[in-house]
Amino acid sequence: MRVLMFGWEFPPHISGGLGTACYGLTKGLMEHGAEILFVLPRLFGCEEAGQMRMIGADESGLPEEFNRFIQKGSMRLLQVNTTLFPYATEETYAAEYQHSFNREQQKDHSAMGGGLTGLYGSGLMEEVYRYASIAPLIAKNHTFDVVHAHDWLTFPAGMAASAQSGKPFVAHIHATEFDRSGSNPNMEVKRIEQQGMETAERVIAVSEYTKKIAIKQYQIAENKVDVVHNGVLPSAVPTVFSDYKKFPVVVFLGRVTFQKGPEYFLYTAARVLRQNPDVRFVLAGHGDKLLHMITLSAQLKISSRVSFTGFIQEQDIARLFGHANVYVMPSVSEPFGISALEAARAGVPVIISRQTGVAEVLNSALKNDFWDTDGMADSILALLKHGALNGWMSRKGQQQARLQTWNKAASRVLKTYSQLQL
Amino acid sequence: MTTKRYICLYFQVHQPYRLGRFRYFDIGRGGGYFDDEKNRSILEKVSQKCYLPATRLLQELSVAYPDRFKCAFSFSGMVLEQMMHFHAESLSEFQKLATMPGVEILAETYSHSLSALVSRSEFEQQVKRHDGLVEMLFSRKPRVLRNTELIYSDEIAAYTAAMGYSGMLAEGADRILGWKSPNYLYVAKNAPTLGLLLKNYRLSDDIAFRFSQPDWNEGPLTAEKFVHWLNAIPEDEPLVNLFMDYETFGEHQWAESGIFDFLRALPDAVFRYSDFEFITPSEALSKLKPADKISMPEPVSWADEARDLSAWLGNPLQDDAFESLYRLRSMVSDCRDEQIQKDWQKLQTSDHFYYMCTKFFADGDVHKYFNPYDSPYEAFVNYMNVLADFELRLKSSLAAIPKQRKQLTTQKQAVPHRAHTD
Q1: What is the DSSP letter of B183?
Q2: pLDDT band at B357 (very low <50, low <70, confident <90, very high)
Q3: Topology of domain B5-294, per CATH?
Q4: A249-403 has CATH 2.60.40.1180 classification
Q5: Which residues pair with B6 in a beta bridge?
Q6: Mean pLDDT of chain B
């Protein structure tokens, strides 16, 4: 099976769960003998404008095991120059674009030409279509059996490659505009998602939760959608248990955005602190809601019990999980929620909102509706009070996380491929 | 014919102990909050640019015009401590200057704190502690008090009068004075024994802020021109209070701006072209008759256009940080750990809350957050992490103290005391 896959981020340069998922999934597929040409946009810059670049085995910064696959010839990575940036909205994209533009200018004045609208195009949509415009060329120059694209930013590219080659198109849904923006979706994004899912011969959703959204919000036929739960890789950095804290620690880890429900974490914290003033809450991650959350913690008069770490490196996550007593994921709408599995893998008891996909595979987790901050607070207090419950959930969570492999996910994806008209 | 008229020069000398970066992971480390290297290098820089040259110049002027050139200083305990540790040369120049008869040293809070707004006893303790240090270093007993950032209210005036001081410095804010002129001696309405010297902010700020502003239509400012303005003041107004940060000379206004030449030429120009004389605050209190009573029910400061507390308090970050700090006060007063007491002083410095001011910060600008110490949110998060560590130390230190000592400390607080008697 030869797969032409369109992604938008890949380790080591990732900003969220999607890069990790692409990494895990391609690894799992190759273990099953698939060959993958993985196309991804370069985040910033270009040595020569418009160039595509095949990444060799000697490419630094890639996970070591990939070099093995690359050497074997079963994996090829193709980078396309665009300024595409993961998790961008039009607003953050404009700022990021300006930033990368300045950096590029410092590097090489001659390559850039004129102002903001010069070489790259200034809007996120424009970049999505720029990425798509290169896809037929890639499709023409390579042989493959199936086109597989991850989320809306890559759907136009995937559809273009499929149209050029006549090969079937699989749309993989990691998140929808309804998860990201609630009842206030960007209609253009929604339209691309709609078109991608309709054009696709099969749709893969990362959870039953997401499948339901595809059926309900996008009117996709139920029998066209397969559910493939994400896996979790063994941790690259071993959990650090020596970083002991003298106080109970409750952790939120994720992008600080509407979708992740960080404010429910703080409202819950305020309730817990009324019962147990010694608990410390750590809100780890960065995002467009971070400054609002800092202000909210002060308004709730709990800032002396809340720490904000900003973006957090893997080594620090390993330290954090090593001493955290509870992990909370109060997402408003979470197609999957890989970081809950990562917390469980490290032995941290997990509380998740019912509005998450990961709830379907992590039976041991305590579940509450994201808006039910009373219920969430009770769960936290129970976990802090009852050592036996905490220990049981820690062990159970680790077991379940261990079972949730990418190898298993990949075999499900292969099953989807086998249903295609090849 | 005319009564004698006076200029009262007063300089504020202060440097905070700036915090180093203190992350969530550092909580529990047990101290080490302050960036010694940064504080030392800033003091070195300010000493070279301001403290040494300006103080030597004032020594020269005191020698050149004995009994005629006069000025007053207030040193925060924070800057005095730092000079003792990092810059003995600056301290000894100040000490030399202080031996000259026309130089008065004022009282203030040891920590350059906002304690007067929250705790009378903390305020009194700090003022007393500061008096002790001034006596030790300068062999002087301050008679006149200037509170942090010239923060004044009727309530603070009452505290100060009860401590036995004969006068206070305050801002001559328009909204308080109305049609009244700042150029008289006043008394506090609710404490008639307490004389009030009010800053003439127009003439003070001509030197402190506008001196080297390129777009100022009055620049360049010469001593002659300044004396010309002094002469324009109605003849029956006997007292012009020029209050400013000492760092005006050489640090805020660089040497290249001619600020030192201005200061050097000022006494001669005053004596030659006007009938003004220089006067210290204490002399002003004994020589001049109060023109009226002044009441400031709400605190007034010398900061910003608003002349209120909004530079340090008022936004949610500042308020919660401030409340969180002073919630610890009763525990601190029970604690005998010397290092904890020292850190308690340093953490109260008003600058920490000034850094959290969002008045000039575009809300929601995430990119600024990345820049360390470039955002009020960063300052807040860092401070709260420090405070969390401090609280842990405090609690574990108290856990080791037997109960009866605590009673002793409470008794001591209840007894009203004068500043200079013990």
Answers
A1: S
A2: confident
A3: 7-stranded beta/alpha barrel (3.20.110)
A4: no
A5: B239, B277
A6: 91
